[in-house]
């Protein structure tokens, strides 16, 4: 099962993508996580990506597309995957379709987690990420057991630069200009389903299971 998650930054698509990956036993591929791991490890890609990410801008397509096409060729992707944060532009979607058709494959589902802009800024300012392992939490909706300490690895939690309100507004603008056109793109491909991302986390997941099957 090959799935892509669409939605504004902070709509909760990452959280749902992780739950999908766990339930269906497929890898969760987050381009944001891959870039953050590269930044942490000080790679050339990380250094390049950081200059864009810190400003809330998209990393250029040429740096992003190869990363994903390499990843989906790995053995663990044979039974599918859930892509989270990719594609984010029409050229990325076209490059993905091209890579898939070269493998004689296609996407099964594009799931849009829909949350109005006004909810997004509120949500993002409560978001916390582990400096060490990248796990994400929310001070109200998904708190850690011990304040500011990661449940998974004991690392310290931070408000990511790209989750700060001024950056969030910029990222929302970019989402509307560059990523929103993907909704029509996948509607035309006949694989788009939109779900209400303002519902409780478990209800959003139930709606997703209803699309993907038990
Ligand atoms: P995310 O964790 O998905 O919110 O991504 C964090 C940041 O990583 C984004 O604001 C972008 O700067 C960058 N990024 C992640 N995925 C992509 C992508 N598909 N294309 C371009 N930039 C991306």
Notes on the protein architecture:
The protein has 214 residues and is α/β, with parallel strands linked by helices. 48% of the residues lie in helices and 15% in strands. It has a 5-stranded parallel sheet with strand order 2-3-1-4-8, with helices on both faces. It has a 3-stranded antiparallel sheet with strand order 6-5-7. Strand 5 and strand 6 (136-138) form a beta hairpin. The radius of gyration is 16 Å and the shape is globular. The mean pLDDT is 94. Adenosine monophosphate binds at residues 9, 31-32, 35, 52-53, 56-59, 64, 85-86, 88, 92, 162, 171.
Mean pLDDT, all residues: 94
The structural class is alpha/beta
Major beta sheet, strand line-up: 2-3-1-4-8
Bound ions, cofactors and other small molecules, one mention each: adenosine monophosphate
What is the general shape?
globular
Strand element count: 8
N-to-C span: 13 Å
User: What is the gyration radius calculated from CA atoms?
Assistant: 16 Å
Low-confidence stretches: none
Give the count of helical stretches.
9
**Strand residue percentage:** 5-15%
Order of helices and strands: EHEHHHEHEHEEEHHEH
Helix content: 40-55%
Largest sheet: 5 strands, parallel
